[in-house]
């Protein structure tokens, strides 16, 4: 199929897929109340993930996380033995809950351990309306604190795997069809293999050999450590994409039993120094998300 045929069929195909996507969202019924149930394990995992992230930001990568305690049918409690960054709590907890497919409204209370006194707190729905953390910027006065998570609904909806899969597939097909009629005037270069060396990956004004852990920047050879090479290879393979910190950590360090956020920051800093002489390459920090490995269009090879 030539380019003209693709363009002529792209828009109708996009409309058809879009119609299927809308019908799937409207036609497929939501789970009824008797089809829902509490999932304590997911709440437990979400709270433990949030606690691990908060401890990591506080500079504690060795202390164990206390077991999550269920106070009643709707409230869970996580005990942290040291102060944490309260301003980071809403985003970290929200992302942890979403990863466990929990989308109910909830309240959060930060309670002092020794006397069970409420110090700070917020509601998820109120946070969305206000756009900022209530009482943000305050330094927590106690070392031992309990984070109490209380859901406002009686049940946690069980996600329908068939509906989720169908919606994701429909969305993917829609984007793929739409892409057939999009004309890009400026193409972003992607890494390419050099014909002279099948292991040499070219990007910007640099080239990288993952097998030999070597990096050439403006004709200067730089030897990399194994983890530096592993991280750089992952960034190159996902050039010009926003990469979540947790996604990078899992891809690079999970098989080594290391998931430490500070380790990522250290290695990102090293790679920036190694690549600083290549003006076509930037490792950009995306606030609150992670990083983007930018390859400038001027670095495209001809």
The description of the largest β-sheet is:
5 strands, antiparallel
Count of discrete alpha- or pi-helical segments spanning 4 or more residues: 8
- As for the number of domains, it is 3
Find the structural class using helix and strand composition: alpha+beta
List keywords for this structure.
5-stranded antiparallel β-sheet; disordered N terminus; Arc Repressor Mutant, subunit A; alpha+beta; 3 domains; 302 residues
Report on the architecture of this protein.
By secondary structure, the chain is α+β, with helices and mostly antiparallel strands. The chain folds into three domains: 3-28 and 160-179, no CATH class; 34-151, no CATH class; 192-299, Arc Repressor Mutant, subunit A. 38% of the residues lie in helices and 20% in strands. It has eight helices and 13 strands. The protein has a five-stranded antiparallel β-sheet with strand order 1-2-5-3-4. The protein has a five-stranded antiparallel β-sheet with strand order 6-7-8-9-10, covered by helices on one side. The two termini are 26 Å apart. The model is unreliable at 1-5, 31-36, 181-190 and 298-302 (pLDDT under 50).
């Amino acid at each position: 199929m030539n380019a003209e045929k693709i363009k002529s069929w792209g828009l109708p195909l996009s409309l058809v897929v879009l119609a299927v996507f809308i019908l799937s969202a409207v036609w497929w019924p939501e789970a009824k109340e008797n089809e829902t149930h509490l999932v304590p394990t997911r709440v437990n995992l979400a709270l433990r993930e949030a606690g691990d992230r908060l401890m990591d930001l506080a500079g504690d990568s060795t202390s164990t996380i206390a077991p999550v305690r269920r106070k009643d049918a709707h409230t869970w409690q996580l005990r942290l033995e040291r102060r944490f960054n309260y301003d980071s709590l809403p985003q970290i907890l929200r992302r942890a809950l979403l990863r466990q497919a929990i989308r109910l409204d909830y309240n959060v209370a930060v309670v002092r351990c020794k006397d069970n006194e409420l110090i700070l707190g917020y509601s998820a729905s109120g946070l969305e309306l206000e756009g900022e953390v209530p009482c943000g910027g305050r330094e927590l006065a106690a070392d031992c604190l309990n984070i109490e998570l209380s859901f406002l609904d009686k049940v946690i909806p069980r996600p329908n795997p068939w509906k989720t899969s169908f919606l994701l597939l429909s969305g993917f097909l829609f984007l793929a069809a739409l892409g057939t009629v999009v004309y890009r005037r400026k193409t972003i270069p992607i890494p390419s293999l050099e014909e002279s060396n099948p292991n040499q990956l070219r990007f910007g004004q640099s080239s990288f050999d993952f097998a030999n852990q070597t990096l050439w920047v403006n004709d200067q050879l730089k030897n990399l450590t194994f983890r530096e090479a592993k991280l750089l290879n992952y960034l190159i393979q996902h050039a010009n994409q926003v990469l979540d910190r947790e996604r990078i950590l899992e891809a690079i360090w999970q098989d080594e039993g290391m998931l430490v956020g500070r380790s990522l920051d250290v290695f990102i800093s090293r790679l920036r120094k190694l690549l600083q002489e290549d003006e076509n390459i930037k490792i950009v920090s995306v606030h609150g998300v992670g990083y983007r490995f930018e390859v400038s269009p001027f670095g495209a090879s001809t």
